[in-house]
Amino acid sequence: MRKNIVAGNWKMNTTVPEGVKLAKEVNDAVAAAKDLKCEVVIGVPFTHLTAVKAVIDINKVGLAAENCAAKDKGAYTGEVSAAMVASTGANYVILGHSERREYFNETPEMLKEKVDLALANGLKVIFCCGESLELRENGTYKEYIKSEIEGSLFHLSADQFANIVIAYEPIWAIGTGKTATSDQAEEVHAVIRGLVADKYGKQVADDTTILYGGSCKPANAPELFSKPDIDGGLIGGASLKADSFMGIVTAF
Ligand SMILES: O=C[C@H](O)COP(=O)(O)O
Predict the structure, then answer these.
(1) What is the CATH number of the domain that holds 118?
(2) Is residue 62 included in any domain, yes or no?
(3) Which atom from ligand 1 is nearest to the alpha carbon of 173?
């Protein structure tokens, strides 16, 4: 049976003290909440991981890095390896976000290396995929998403794939206030689950958590999460305030 997950992605926001304060607020709200129907994860900048880990209960609030290197160690100035992330106590890493693909030229091949290193170091992966407005409008978005998933994930064994969470994030909906409708999101989520079923079988597909991301807010989360193949969200802007993030966490 798959888990519902709501994960925050703080992106390049908050100083360390601000991030620690926000993490404490989320941790306290999760601890006080009754009958939560999802796992909660916060994705924070590398600089925050150790300090945030110290103020959360990792059994109640998962901790994600927002990236890791495609190399295991060595002379790569400024890079942060999967082993370094894991050594902070983080248990997740977000990989393949469209902002990294676009601004830092991350390719499916590079992401495949990152996925392998993350899994080898015991991290679970939140793997992002999603199409541009151009691909949405010319109707090739499903083929594009298929290529993103096949190119970076389908070399994995079924056992390895159990540690993958997929996040569908249409680029045209990220930070724009323009959410995909629940039907538009459900269509793609069902396609993704079908791809996983074709590759790994129905049981693995049924067990795979598929998140939606893109202007998800407390007001639209209940409708999105009511769809059968939408198992939660990857939340950007609305994860930067504990109140709005918890409004989504409690939307199931
Ligand atoms: O990773 C999160 C997504 O980019 C969504 O960001 P957003 O909620 O600010 O649209």
Answers:
(1) 3.20.20.70
(2) yes
(3) 10
